[in-house]
Amino acid sequence: MKRKILIVGGVAGGASAAARLRRNSEEDEIIMFEKGPHVSFSNCSLPYHLSGIVENADDLVLMDPELFFTQYNIEARVNNEVISINKEEKYITVKDLISNKTYNESYDKLILSPGARPIVPRIPGIESVNVYTVRNVVDIDKLNKAVKNSASKNISVIGGGFIGVEVAENLREAGYNVSLVEGTDQILRPFDYDMVQIFHKEIYDKGIDLIIGDKVEKFEENKVVLSSGKRLDADVVVMAIGVAPETSLAKDAGLDIGITGAISVDKNYRTSNDDIYAIGDSIEIYHALTNTKSKLALAGPALKQARTAADSIHQKNTTNKGYIGSSAIKVFGFNGASTGLNESLIKALDMKISYDIVRIIPSDKVGLMPDAAPIHFKLLYEVPTGKILGAQAIGIGDVTKRIDLIATVIKFGGTLEDLKDLELTYAPPFSTAKDVVNYAGYVGSNLLNGDFKQINIDKVRTLVENNEFIIDVREKNEYERGHINGAVNIPLSELRKRVNEIPKDKPVYVHCRSGQRSYNAIMALQNLGYKNLYNIAGSYLGISFYEYFNDKSLNRESIMTEYNFE
After folding, report:
1. In contact, 34 and 77? CB cutoff 8 Å
2. DSSP code of 557?
3. Where along the chain do its domains lie?
4. Class level of CATH domain 333-448
5. How many other β-carbons are positioned within 10 Å of the β-carbon of residue 242?
6. What is the pLDDT of residues 128-137, one digit of tens each?
7. Can 512 be counted among the known catalytic residues?
8. What does the pLDDT read at residue 390?
9. Dist. CA 543–CA 563, nearest whole Å
10. Closest CA to 398 of 335, 447, 356
11. Residues 379-428: pLDDT tens digits?
12. How far apart are the C-alpha atoms of 258 and 294, rounded to whole Å?
C-alpha cells in the first residue's frame, strides 16, 4: 500500500533515511524538507574549507535536489522550514523561505532529523565582536569570507571540542593568529587528561595560543576578556562550546523529551507517537557501557539510526544494542581515536566499576620502516573479569585501525584474553607481528594476574618531589641526553651486576624509554627476590609528553633535565 512519508532535515540522518526508505519500497511517496539550501553535505569536513584542503565551499555539498530526485525518486525541498507538527491530524506546516508562504503537508509516517544547534550563550558585550558558528556550508562559507576580508589576522575560537580544535587547526594552517580558549582543564573530552597532553603540546608547538581552565567573562570591541583578566585581540570569534539537540518541533508537538533534554525514542527510534520517528543529534541514545541515556552527536550512529527507522516503518526486524561512542580526530601532525569508557567519564558518572589501565607506547610498524612511529595507547579493562571497557590511541600513524579493533571487541563483550588471541594481518610496512592491541592484551593480562605492579605517568612529579627511588634502565648515552631529576641510571645491560645498588626496604620505580625494558628489568629483579617494584607505565617518552605543555604554559620547573619526544 502506497504511503506518504515526510522527513524533516537532510544531511546524514535525513538523507540516509530517505534513501533507505526508497530501497525498501518503490511506491511510497517520500518528501524531505531542509531549511538550508543543501540536501546533504559533509558536515564533518566543514572546518577543512578554512585551510583550503577543501578548496571550494560547494565541494562540501554531496547532493542537490535534482540529482536526489533523478537517482532516488525522492523530492527534496530545500529552503523549506518545517515550523509545526499536528500529530492528531497528521500534517506538518512548512514555510517556504524563498516565497515566505506557508503550507500544510499531510503524512502517514514522519521522521524527524533536525540535528543540533550551536550553543551561543548571552555573554556580556557579545554584540561588540564578530561572532560565527559552524553548523553547515553556509556558516563555514561566511566564516571563511569573514577571516579573509578581515584587516587583521587575530581570531579566537571558544571551545575545545572537536569542532573548536578542527577550526583552530585549519585557521592556523591558513596563516592566522589563533587563540583557542577552553574553560575546563583540557580539550577533547573523549581523551583522558594524561593522554590529551600530547594534543596540548602539538597545538602549542604549532603556534596556537592554547588557554585552558579560563572562561570568557565578557567581550569588548574586537577583544575577548577572560575570567583571569587576560585580554585577547579578536577580529573574529568562533563559538564552538558545544551543541544542543534541536527539539523545538518535538516539544511543541507534545512529543516526549528524555532526561537528557533530547527527544525520547524507543529501540526503533519511534517517538511517543507511533507515526513519528526521530534520529540523529536531536535524540537521546542508550549508552551500552554506562547503561544510561545519553546524547551522541556523531555521523556514524545517525546513519545506523536512519536505517533502523526506515526498516521499522516497513516492519523489518531491527536490533538496537546501544552505542559506545567511537570517534577520531586529526590535530596537525597527530591522529587520535577513542572508544568506550575513559577514566574521566567513569569518575564524572560516579560509576561503581573496578578497573585498571594499560598504558603502552609500542611502534605502529616494524622499526626498520622509515615511517615507523610510536603509538600512545591506553586501554581500560574491568577487574577481575578482564572485560574491555574502552581505549584511546594517539600517534602520527594509523591509530584508527587499533581503536576500531577495540570497538569491535567491546561490542562483542571481549576481554584481555580475546585481545591476546586476535589474529591480525601483518607485514612490516603496516604493523608489527604482535600488534598494538595484542600487546595491550598481554600487558593487561600480566597486570590482572598480578605479575607486576605499575604506576601511571601522572604520578611521577609527586615521586620526584618526594625523593622516591627511581631507576632509569636506559643506556648511559640515553640517560645523558635527558633524565628525570634524581633518577639513578642502572642500564638493563648492567642490571644483574648492580643489583646491590637497589634497595629492598622501600618502593622502587623503574622506567626506560617506553616501558618494555623497564618491564624486563622488573621481571628479572622479581625473580631475584624483589617485591617492592613498580613499572612507570609510559616511561620517559610518556612523561615528556605529559609534562611539557603544563611546564611551558605555567612556567613551572621541569622534573626532567631534557624532554625526549622520539
Report:
1. yes
2. P
3. 4-48+57-116+244-313, 126-241, 333-448, 454-554
4. alpha beta
5. 13
6. 999 999 999 9
7. yes
8. 98
9. 8
10. 335
11. 999 999 999 999 999 999 999 999 999 999 999 999 999 999 999 999 99
12. 9
Distance in angstroms (rounded) separating the CA atoms of residues 519 and 512:
9
pLDDT digits (tens, 9 = 90+) for 334-387: 999 999 999 999 999 999 999 999 999 999 999 999 999 999 999 999 999 999
Are 230 and 217 in contact by the 8 Å Cβ rule? The answer is no
Q: Are strands 236-239 and 488-489 parallel, antiparallel or unpaired?
A: unpaired
Contacts of 374 (CB under 8 A, 6+ apart): 361, 362, 363, 364, 395, 514, 541
CATH number assigned to the domain covering 126-241 = 3.50.50.60
Are 224 and 232 spatial neighbours (Cβ–Cβ below 8 Å)? yes
Q: Identify the CATH assignment for 454-554 out of 2.102.10.10, 3.10.300.10, 3.20.20.100, 3.40.250.10.
A: 3.40.250.10
Structure confidence by residue, pLDDT tens digits, 39-86 = 888 889 999 999 999 999 888 888 788 988 999 999 999 999 999 999
The verdict on domain 4-48+57-116+244-313 having CATH code 1.10.10.650 is: no
The per-residue pLDDT of the chain, averaged, comes to: 96
What does the block give as the cell for 293? 541515556
| pLDDT of 38 over the 90 cut | no
Cβ neighbours of residue 394 closer than 8 Å, sequence gap 6 or more: 191, 195, 198, 199, 334, 335, 336, 375, 376
423-450: pLDDT as tens digits: 999 999 999 999 999 999 999 999 999 9
Residue 62 vs residue 229, higher pLDDT: 229
CA distance 221 to 234: 9
Report the alpha-carbon distance of residue 479 to residue 564 in Å, rounded: 10
Element (H, E) at 175: none
Residue 366 has what pLDDT? 95
Section 212-223 average pLDDT: 96
Q: Is 454-554 in the same CATH topology as 126-241?
A: no
Dump strand ranges (E) for 97-205. 102-106, 109-112, 116-118, 131-132, 154-158, 177-182
Residue 1: pLDDT above 80? no
Contacts of residue 72, Cβ cutoff 8 Å, sequence gap at least 6? 18, 19, 22, 30
C-beta separation of 41 from 136 below 8 A: yes
Task: Name the active-site residue from 234, 471, 512, 536.
Answer: 512
